[in-house]
Amino acid sequence: MLDEINKIKTEIEARLSEINNADGVEKFRLEFLVKKGSIQTLFDRLKDVPKEEKPLIGKELNILRNFAEENYNLFKEKFEQSRETVSGIDLTLPGRKEFTGSLHPVIQTMREMNDIFIKMGFSIAEGPDIEDEYHNFDALNFPPDHPARDMQDTFFIESPQKLLLRTHTSPVQIRVMKGMKPPIRCIMPGRVYRNEAINARSLAEFHQIEGLYVDKHVTFAELKGTLIQFAKKMYGENSKFRFRPSFFPFTEPSAELDITCFLCGGEGCRVCKHSGWLEIAGCGMVHPNVLKECGIDPEVYSGYAFGFGIERVTMLRTGIDDIRLLYENDVRVLEQF
Ligand code: DAH
């Protein structure tokens, strides 16, 4: 009997060394620890053991059973804890967060504006950021002594061709009109540069969307209708607008489009400088000199043009009240939009 006990002990040790998962633990239990298992079978035979040997055999059997049970419990605990890590995946770990990028708020605004104009039948044109004086000023009817031509306002590039960083998107109008015949209906989004003091309201670079429509019989009424239609889509049906007479060298007559300040609803606040109105675009009928310069007969054709700033609109819709935040590329700011 003692030999058999030892034999089973050796078997138990061998089995234990093979256990490497919860199934192995269960197999071990079925082999040694159930009623019909090999240990209980030895206990059953205790009644046939001679009386004087019983205490010793009984003691050895108990030691054997405790040894098997203790090890079973140890292994059970070990493999149950890691049961959820089956094939290396720990299902109790928190999920991994997906980090998705997003478009910069200025680009989001620009695309939204583009989309509205595209639905109204405008196509998109682009021009270079590095321009020459001819496209940026001369062809747009700027007089030779216009202050915008001053180094104080414009970044000139040292070059024989008198290159500069475009100060507005209007030079793209010239390129478009020289490149195709009317009817022309397009918008020209892009980045522009001005030699300005940097503060919460202005930067040396920002974005504009230029618009141009040239055909026979284009009228100022059409310009008003188009811009109001656009602005309602962009800022909401209930916004109110007004056109104020203004001046630009390349349009005649010229106007500026204001919208009721959508922060204070027209009551007056810091953003609208307590006027209740925000300036959102410059516009007007393309000056006959500009049409002529581009080879378009102003007696036959007329056109309107407009220019929107994009940063101002972006600041209003995001609630960002310092324009510099849009250009610092601080992820903590950008990831909110
Ligand atoms: N280019 C002007 C600016 O930068 C904006 C502008 C005004 C564009 C009137 C236009 C226009 O096309 O018709 O301030």
What does this structure look like?
- The protein is of the alpha+beta class and 337 residues long.
- The chain contains eleven helices and nine strands.
- A hairpin with a 2-residue loop joins β6 (241-248) and β7.
- α1 (2-18) runs parallel beside α4 (54-81) and α2 runs antiparallel to α4 (54-81).
- 3,4-dihydroxyphenylalanine is lined by residues 168, 170, 210, 248, 251, 282-284, 305-307.
Give the strand tally: 9
Name of the CATH architecture of the largest domain = 2-Layer Sandwich
Oligomeric status of the shown chains?
single chain
Percentage of helical residues? 25-40%
N-to-C order of helices and strands: HHHHHEEHEHEEHEEEHEHH
Rg to the nearest angstrom? Answer: 41 Å
Instruction: Summarize model confidence as the mean pLDDT.
Output: 90
CATH topological fold name of the largest domain: BirA Bifunctional Protein, domain 2
Bound molecules: 3,4-dihydroxyphenylalanine
Overall geometry: rod-shaped
CATH superfamily of the largest domain: Bira Bifunctional Protein, Domain 2
The residue ranges in which pLDDT falls below 50 over 5 or more consecutive positions are none
Query: In what order do the strands lie side by side in the largest sheet?
Result: 1-4-5-9-8-7-6
- Largest pleated sheet: 7 strands, mixed
Return the domain count. 2
Tell me the β content. 15-25%
Distance between the termini: 80 Å
